[in-house]
From TrEMBL:
<dbReference type="GO" id="GO:0016757">
    <property type="term" value="F:glycosyltransferase activity"/>
</dbReference>
<dbReference type="InterPro" id="IPR028098">
    <property type="entry name" value="Glyco_trans_4-like_N"/>
</dbReference>
<keyword id="KW-0808">Transferase</keyword>
<protein>
    <submittedName>
        <fullName>Glycosyltransferase involved in cell wall bisynthesis</fullName>
    </submittedName>
</protein>
<feature type="domain" description="Glycosyltransferase subfamily 4-like N-terminal">
    <location>
        <begin position="15"/>
        <end position="169"/>
    </location>
</feature>
<dbReference type="Pfam" id="PF13439">
    <property type="entry name" value="Glyco_transf_4"/>
</dbReference>
<dbReference type="Pfam" id="PF13692">
    <property type="entry name" value="Glyco_trans_1_4"/>
</dbReference>
Amino acid sequence: MKYNVLYIIESMNLGGTEKQLCELINGLSANGVVRPHLCTLKPSSDLLDSINCPKIDLGTRRLLSLDIPQKIKKLARFCNDYEICLVQTFFQDPSVIGAMLKLLLPVKLIITFRDLGFWRTRLENFKMRLAYKRADGFIANSLAVKKHFSINDGLALDKIKVIYNGFDMTELEGYRSGSVEDGLREIGIVANLNRPVKRVQDFIAAAALVRAKNPNVVFSVIGDGHLRMDLERFTDSLGLNQVVNFVGRLENPLEHIANFSVGVITSETEGLSNAIIEYMACSVPVVATNTGGNPELVLEGENGFLYPVGNVEVLADRILKLLDDNVNQRIGRNNRERVASNLSLSYMVKCYENHYQDMLSGCPLQPTSLGGQL
């Protein structure tokens, strides 16, 4: 039996969640068990053309605009035309749209959780809890995210399914490391420079400590945003402007990541970091904050190290440990094997297919396993 599923998201402009959804839709289309459909609330570029499925754009910039009822009816007609039986939403406003749609149509509604609620305000909490009451189930991308929403929103644990993000290993074909100057090691971070919670200033502060003990290292920051200018000024104040390179936003950062000797995540909050998975897939050892879903990916001493949020001294120490060639190569191999075995795109797509079938047949949730960690 084939299922018609509708995904609702704000836009398909380039981002971690948007890329994951693009790969999920294309993977489901290729398998043929699920027929995916896409609804965006705002005009999109970047990833939209690479998605092979029926699409509708509501052109909605504000959830409380006067034309929202007409937009919902338009979406309901789209769902009727394509015989949609299940709706899955990403982010806050799309989840409210999904809840409104469920008032008009006999569809199953899944709301997706992908962070630890850094967006929470009283208004957002009120709005989302109304939407949660209409949902038939939820999907979280880590155990930490599942626990957070269960505790903070009173959601039953057995209604929240964990499906980890997936990585397409074929993306690495043809990439070769070696652009870094001979004799130098590159330490890198991939981060959204619009979000203070990413704490990229900690990466730069640690760079100064690492350079003091090992001058044969350089540092790269992949990402862009309004915080970049302040971070560049901070870099200059530490005298690191010649060794910290602000690469900017890259459509596909993997070729650059392949040069890293160590990949770093400094966030104070994370659901499940796509950047960590990309580091691991590129055989790069990881140093990450001990928060959110990071411990579900990084096993202490096995494929990297964890450190307390904001502790720059420990961060620098862990980076220096991973610059040891023997440790670096062993951990790098472990990382690539872990992604190929437990975090592949094909496995993620299969988990979604199975879950949709369970939801539509009334079966109980089955646990998801991540290589012995869960």
